[in-house]
Amino acid sequence: MEKVDLFALIDELQQEIEESPNRLLSKDSKVIDTNYVLEIIEDIRNASKNEFESSRNIMKERDTIIANANAQADAIIKSANERAEILVSENSVAKAAYDKAVKMVEQSRAKSKQIRTSAMDYATDVLNELESYFNEYLGYVRENKERITGKSTVVTEDNTVAE
What we know:
Blueprint (H helix, E strand, L loop, with lengths): L5 H14 L14 H116 L4 E2 L5 E2 L1
Antiparallel strand pairs: 1-2
């Protein structure tokens, strides 16, 4: 449909009224071509109808564009929130793994210390038994030596032999 300028039609109507001849013996009354004026009014009505319809369509398109933009914004926000939750979850998992690793290291150190202490105690016990065993057999060796040589030997506290 051809686009008609409403203001041009109104200007044409005004021009028709202004340029119409005055009625005989009257200054304020004019002789107007009624059919021409009605035609202009009909053109204004049709053009207005088209303009209003175009305005409605533009407003519908605007509402659709805004609704789509809001939907896209909501989708972006939802996606960002989901990603943030994933990152927080991953961070929580990493923190939990780190905390568990720290706890395992602490437990390992405690167990290591306990094993070391137990090993030292065991080694001390074995060395004490070995010392006791060697002292006992050293005593047998001295007794046998005394029997053979007839001399008596004395062992001092610092395990030195005095004859």
